[in-house]
Design a protein that fits this description.
The protein has helices spanning 24-36, 45-67, 86-96, 107-119, 135-138, 178-187, 206-215, 254-261, 274-277, 288-300, 302-320, 322-329, 347-356, 358-366, 370-374, 377-383, 388-410; strands at residues 3-9, 38-44, 72-77, 99-104, 124-125, 165-170, 192-195, 216-221, 266-269, 284-285. The protein is an alpha/beta fold and 411 residues long. It is globular, with a radius of gyration of 22 Å.
Length: 411
């Protein structure tokens, strides 16, 4: 039985350092763990770092482990996040005999540059992904159980409102060839509304997203996990650490689950993993021509979409609600704490880790928290590998945030 557990995660409803809606999947995960495990303690590690800096961050985590006699440590890595010092985690594992469970987003993209380094110290991996046979973990002798994407079913609801939008897409329009497909549909007379980064209507919050999904006769989902060259100022973690060949990656997207949880219809681009979410030929498309054909068909046959969504909503709740999924996973996590004899750290990981910490350095510097800013300097001097594009992105982002803070103070 799992108890005495510490979760290092992001908590959207109390998060102060990025857009709250970006963390809803972590809320569902954390809330489910809290429901199913006794003696659970949770720390928003990102806010903790911004509050206490590098040294205080480590001290607070170790104090919590010590005071609460922690045995299980769940670490939830946000996409593109390199907050954690790998050597510090090894130190904690050995000193307190921790059973470490790692969960991360988008391993299709981030396994090679990041996850495989953090995962070498984990006793279990619970990825938010669908990877056939979890072979990339087995190759590294890692014990893994896929979580898919999991949600709090109460956050994705049926508003039972009229379908006033023919077709909608919510997401990053700038990724891969999404804009090309959207423009193709428009040129063929399809009335499509877009929301999100690079879209006509721009970013929308969770409440508005629910309204758009529920109002749409057909929602679209794309499966590309391509590297985006457009910097996203809505989060503090979105910068390009990938390579251009990532444009060939496809993955099962959680948006497909979110839409069917609301009892709304979705057409999804086919790809590895998509059919493992919902094995239904009627809801996938192969290319823009197949998509156009299916859009026209389902707009003319709405009664068929109702039948499909009714069936798939029940499947989504059973299979992807966080509590339902973790009820089957947690009993498999028997306590163990392997000893790390060799820790492999390569230049690629060090470069990304070091460059990422300029995010904190610039943030502290512009907030005049000079003591905390100086705590980042030993990291730079120790490793001395940098990605200057990443550093520039963080400088630009934190400069804009600093300017906005000054403007708000002057109002």
């Amino acid at each position: 039985m799992i108890n005495n557990t510490l979760i290092l995660t992001r908590i959207s409803y109390k998060n102060h350092n990025s857009r709250p809606e970006t963390c809803s999947v972590w809320d569902a995960y954390t809330n489910a763990l809290d429901t199913l495990i006794e003696n659970v303690y949770t720390i928003d590690y990102y806010d903790l770092y911004f509050k206490h800096g590098h040294i205080g961050f480590k001290n607070e985590i170790e104090r919590s482990i010590q005071d609460n006699k922690i045995q299980y440590l769940f670490i939830c890595y946000m996409a593109e996040d390199y907050t954690f010092d790998l050597n510090f985690l090894v130190y904690l594992k050995h000193k307190y005999q921790l059973c470490i469970i790692n969960t991360s987003q988008d391993p299709e993209t981030f396994f090679e540059p990041r996850d495989r380094y953090y995962n070498q110290i984990a006793d279990y991996i619970l990825p938010f992904a669908i990877l056939p046979n979890n072979c990339i973990y087995a190759n590294y002798n890692l014990a893994s159980i896929t979580l898919y994407s999991i949600y709090n079913k109460d956050m994705f609801y049926d508003e039972k409102i009229p379908k006033t939008i023919d077709v909608s897409f919510i997401g990053n329009v700038n990724k891969a060839n999404r804009r090309e497909i959207i423009d193709f549909l428009k040129n063929k007379g399809i009335k499509i509304e877009t929301y999100g980064s690079g879209s006509k209507n721009g970013f929308i919050n969770h409440t508005k997203m629910m309204n758009i999904i529920n109002s749409s006769k057909i929602n679209l989902n794309f499966t590309e996990s391509a590297l985006s060259q457009h910097f996203d100022f809505n989060t503090n973690t979105n910068f390009p650490i990938g390579t251009h060949i990532n444009s060939r990656i496809q993955q099962a997207k959680g948006r497909l689950i979110e839409i069917y949880l609301t009892n709304s219809f979705c057409l999804s681009q086919d790809g590895p993993g998509t059919r493992q979410l919902f094995n239904n030929e009627n809801i996938v498309f192969k290319d823009k021509y197949d998509l156009l054909k299916k859009i026209n068909y389902y707009l003319a046959n709405q009664e068929e979409t109702i039948k499909i969504t009714t069936d798939l909503q029940q499947l989504a709740i059973k299979k992807f609600d966080a509590i339902n999924r973790l009820k089957t996973v947690l009993p498999q996590l028997k306590y163990k704490s392997k000893y790390i004899n060799i820790l492999y750290v390569d230049k690629e990981f060090i470069t990304n880790y070091t460059s990422y910490h300029f995010l904190f350095f610039f943030n502290f510097l512009f907030k005049l928290k000079l003591k905390l800013a100086l705590q980042e300097v030993p990291i730079f001097l120790k490793y001395r590998y940098f990605n200057f594009n990443t550093i520039y992105s963080h400088l630009k982002m934190q400069s804009i945030y600093a300017y906005k803070r000054v403007r708000n103070m002057q109002k």
